[in-house]
Amino acid sequence: MKSMILILLLVLAVQAHAADPYKWRDAAGQVHYTDQPPPPGAKDVERPSTRGNLIESDTLPYETRLVARKYPVTLYSFEGCGPACSSAQALLEKRGVPFTLRNGESDKAALKKLTGDYEIPVLVVGNQPPLKGFQESRWAELLDLAGYPNSNPLGQLQKKSAGTAPAKEIEP
User: Which stretches does UniProt call biased (Polar residues) (predicted)?
Assistant: First the structure.
């Protein structure tokens, strides 16, 4: 009998925890928090986050975030480009440079506008003229001038997903 009560309490606790909360204001201006959808006349309906108390932080070192904000890096490449594209991406990863990877195939118009042709890989660092083709010494020089580290301080790739804006702000 005790085990049945315990199981029932556990089931109820799990169901209560799984409920999505609603925050809304009634006609009198009173704020309500419920697990049921608000009535049709409710104002300022919100679905508050139920995540735990987390401190979110960027894993990039502070200095790298500052450089990335001032000089965002975009790499134009595509699958099957060959050794030039894979070497270009490997250089950025080895140095710990956060970058946006753009697909040269799907972003042909942007690539043509940027460089005047479709040669890849292309590296764009901030507002500097784009570098076409992979020459490690030229790419390293441009990254050095921008202030990016020579080696990855975290030992892992910090890459924005493809298709995001290259000039996205990174919070310090």
Answer: 151-161
